Structures are given as C-alpha cells and as structure tokens.
Amino acid sequence: MPIWAVVYLNLKTASDFVVFSLLRMPPGLHLTETVRFFLFEVPKVLLLLTLIVFVVGIIRTYFSPERTRKILEGKSLFLGNIMASALGIVTPFCSCSAIPLFLGFVEAGIPLGVTFSFLIAAPMINEVALVLLLSLFGWKTALLYVSTGLVIAITAGWTLGKLNLGRFVEDWVYEVKAEGEIAEGERLPFGRRVGSGLTAVKEIVAKVWIYIVIGIGIGAAVHGYVPENFMASIMGKSAWWSVPLSVMIGVPLYSNAAGIIPIVQSLLEKGASLGTALAFMMSVIGLSLPETIILKKVLKLPLIFIFVGIVALGIMIVGFLFNLVF
C-alpha cells in the first residue's frame, strides 16, 4: 500500500517528465495533450482498479451469491425492490455474471420485479464507476450517480413487477432445480480472504485492461482534438435531443465502467452537459449488448424489449433532470 500510494501521488509528475523531458514534445499542441492525457490516465485508472478489485475480492468471501438469494427470499413488492437494488450495489457482479443469479432468484420464487431490480442495480451502480467518479468528479457526482441508479433500479423493477410479465419468461426457467448449492457459514482465515482478493485482481484486471486502454485512448483523442464548441452543440444542454441520442448510442455499445468513464471525463471537459454524459455512461454500463444476448436465453422478446425500454426511459429522465438542475 505505501508503494501504491507513492506511485499514485506522483503520476502527474511522471507523465509530465515523460512527455516534456524524454519525448521533448512541445506544450500546447493537440498531440502533446493527447499523449499527456493517455500516459497519466492509463496508470491512474489501472491503479484504482487494482485497489478496488482487491477490496471487492475480499468482500466477496463474506457475501456469497447464495446468501444474496436467501436474503431476498420471502420479500415482495416495493420492499423487495429496495432490498434487491441495495444488494445490487454491494454485490460485485457485472451484468453478465448477474444473470445466473437471476435464474436462481426466479427458481427460488422471488417475484420477477424484485429480480429485475437486482439485475439492473448490479451492473449500473458499479463499484468501479463509483470510486472513479469520486476521484475524478467529486463526492456530489458520485452520490448522484448512486442515488439515480437506485431510483432507476427500484422504479423499473417495481413497474415490471406490476405488469405481471411472468408469461414472457421461458418455461424451462421455472422448471429448473437448484444444483450445487454454495456452502455457507465457512469461516476463512483472513490470509485466505486476502488470497481471494489477489486472485480477483489477476483474473479481473487481466480481462478488462484492454477496455481501459481503448477507452482512455478514445478519451485522449477527444481531449486533444475534438473542439469544445462541437461537443457542446452535440451533448450540451441546449440540444434537447442530446439525452435520447446519447442513450440510443450507448445501448448497443459494450464497455465496462473502467473503460467508459475516461471517455465521459473527456466529454465533460469538452463541453458536454453532466446529465447527457451520465445518461450515455449509464446506458453503456446498464444495458450492455452481451447482457441482452444472454437474457434472450431466459426471457421472451416482448419482455426483453419492455425491460430495455423501461430502463432506457429511466436513464433519459435522469439525464434531463441533471441537465435541468446543473
């Protein structure tokens, strides 16, 4: 941790040294700003991600998916939606890994709307996104991100539950029987929990680092070359259609939080409004294409379209609200 702190606190100095002293790039040029942004943000995000994943890997040893399922059993209506959304925040599952839990929830008799609240909150209110937003934009933006994500998850899940859409779940889902229950109550020494954190770092960082580099590369290009007035005209408050357009662009894209937030940071620096940028980010993270493809195996098309439509509408409402307030 001391080494991590020393490296993290000196990233700006190191990146400036590389750009101006080693590469001898003249200040003020578009290329210089692009390279400088890239060299600073890549190690910064990777360091943050490593720390976050390590901590979450330890938390995972205390908070198993099976325990999550059992907490939700017997809960219904609005209380169940609230609890499922809150559990979606503290359980470290992405949109695709949350879908097996979706099957377990349905098999356990948990109401469909409650399971959707979890399925929405787990990827949308992402622990990586939360810490990165906190470090890049401050606690107010991070708090707003969490609160609006909760509102979307709770409201969308409750709405889906009220629509009585169980007939659009594939029949085989209800016939599935739980197999291989995860053992609970096992007391692990803290050393093994730390080992789980290190294993999580090796597995997860190895999978997402390329998305981080690509995302920061795009963000660096936006930061260095895209004119501010252009971004303000496309994603600014004055363009009423910027929020729905951003959601339409974000829904078919796939990225994780670590890859999309550097792009959002660059968009904001270039004049994009906060609501529009957040709507874009939440649509990319919360409505990923791989998640939709996997959902097709357990849900019929009408329910998939309703699910995507309700979540997209909630995200657009959040975007318009943020643009109105800020």
Radius of gyration: 21 Å
Task: Give the low-pLDDT segments.
Answer: 177-185
**Overall mean pLDDT score?**
75
> How would a crystallographer describe the biggest sheet?
none
Percentage of residues in strands: under 5%
Count of strand segments: 0
Number of helices: 17
Structural class: mainly alpha
Question: Could you estimate the helical fraction of the residues in percent?
Answer: over 70%
Shape by Cα distribution: globular
Element string (H = helix, E = strand): HHHHHHHHHHHHHHHHH
State the end-to-end CA separation.
37 Å
Overall structural domain count: 2
Structure description:
The protein has 2 domains: 78 residues; 216 residues, no CATH class. The protein has 326 residues and is mostly helical. The longest helix has 36 residues. The chain is built from 17 helices and no strands. The radius of gyration is 21 Å and the shape is globular. About 3% of the residues have low confidence.
Chart the SSEs and their pairings.
Layout: H1 2-9, H2 11-22, H3 30-62, H4 65-72, H5 77-90, H6 95-107, H7 112-124, H8 127-137, H9 139-162, H10 171-175, H11 190-225, H12 228-235, H13 242-250, H14 257-269, H15 274-286, H16 289-295, H17 301-325
Helix pairs in contact: 2-3, 3-8, 3-11, 5-7, 5-9, 6-7, 7-9, 7-15, 8-9, 8-14, 9-17, 11-14, 13-15, 13-17, 14-15, 15-17
